[in-house]
């Protein structure tokens, strides 16, 4: 999706070869970035380009990325903001998007790893479901990589990302967004998803007001509200957990204080897009209320959880009791 080239000519050239633009953004990622890059080179689908986007690193990761770009000039490019600025995750992703040439775009964070068949299997799904804007699956929440001096809990075990929806199916809007608001579904981690490049023409790029926390949820929620998404049962990524990762840094902060910018953005986006789905609007309004009442909200959420459990139990007992009466 290079703005200096004719888009239609570029698409007709690339589509037959299924070129995938892989975007790795990084900020001081020298500890892990070479592993991430190696996992791209190990892909069984070999037709890809790699864009290494430097968000103002001050460690050795800039030199590592530049070395790969020099060694593989036909496949790897090094990108940075003007004056080597640090502008945040959304701006870094957008810089990569603006320089991408592929019909498909995938993100890989510098501390994560792709499994070898990720691109091959996701592209096969796109062939079967061309209407899908995005394909994603499970992720391995990865603690077992940890070095002896790592500050993560020694007792923590790896586990797999819970999809929260029926796997191996095409999900139409706004179902995934509704499940997200009901806390029954999570957005995929960026390293998990593969998207058609036309998605960015439809919904725009990442919102640069969100520099770190929730930058992915804001973007993925736009897709959920507008386009079908294929959710697979496959695991394609190892999502590394370490003390510097965004998810670990924020896990002890106030949940509702962190969510306030996200939820108010959702509210404004629904209005700006003219989305009038009553259920969606009600769910966003309920989440706004929780953010405004952070002391009461957790109690009500817990109560709702137990009510749902009781309801599910009663529903499971109805067929058995009916059989006994007959």
TrEMBL record:
Residues 21-140 form the Glycosyltransferase 2-like domain. Transmembrane segments: none annotated. It comes from the Bacteria. Pfam families: Glycos_transf_2. Signal peptide: none annotated. Keywords: Transferase. One of its GO terms (molecular function) is transferase activity. PANTHER family: GLYCOSYLTRANSFERASE (PTHR43685), GLYCOSYLTRANSFERASE 2-LIKE DOMAIN-CONTAINING PROTEIN (PTHR43685:SF2). This is Glycosyl transferase family 2. It comes from Leptolyngbya foveolarum.
């Amino acid at each position: 999706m290079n703005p200096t080239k004719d888009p239609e000519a570029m698409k007709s050239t690339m589509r037959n070869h299924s070129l995938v633009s892989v975007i790795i953004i990084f900020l001081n990622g020298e500890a892990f970035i070479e592993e991430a890059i190696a996992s791209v080179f190990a892909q069984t689908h070999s037709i890809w380009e790699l864009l290494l986007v430097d968000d103002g690193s001050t460690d050795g990761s800039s030199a590592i990325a530049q070395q790969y770009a020099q060694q593989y000039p036909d496949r790897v490019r090094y990108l940075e903001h003007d004056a080597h600025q640090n502008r945040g995750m959304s701006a870094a992703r957008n810089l990569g998007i603006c320089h991408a040439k592929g019909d498909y775009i995938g993100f890989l964070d510098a501390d994560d790893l792709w499994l070898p068949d990720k691109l091959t299997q996701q592209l096969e799904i796109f062939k079967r479901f061309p209407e899908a804007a995005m394909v994603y699956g499970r992720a391995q929440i990865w603690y077992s990589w940890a070095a002896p001096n790592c500050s993560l809990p020694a007792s923590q075990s790896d586990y797999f990302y819970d999809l929260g929806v029926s796997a191996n199916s095409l999900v139409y809007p706004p179902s995934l967004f509704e499940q997200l608001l009901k806390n029954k579904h999570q957005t995929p981690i960026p390293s998990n998803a593969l998207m058609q490049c036309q998605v960015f023409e439809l919904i725009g790029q990442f919102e640069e007001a969100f520099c770190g926390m929730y930058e992915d949820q804001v973007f993925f929620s736009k897709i959920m509200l507008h386009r079908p998404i294929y959710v697979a049962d496959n695991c394609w990524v190892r999502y590394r957990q370490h003390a510097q990762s965004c998810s670990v840094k924020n896990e002890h902060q106030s949940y509702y204080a962190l969510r306030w910018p996200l939820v108010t953005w959702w509210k404004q986006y629904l209005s700006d897009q003219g989305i009038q789905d009553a259920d969606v609007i009600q769910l966003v309004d309920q989440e706004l209320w929780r953010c405004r009442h952070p002391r009461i909200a957790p109690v009500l959420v817990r109560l709702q959880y137990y009510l749902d459990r009781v309801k599910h139990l009663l529903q499971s007992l109805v067929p058995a009791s009916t059989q006994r009466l007959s």
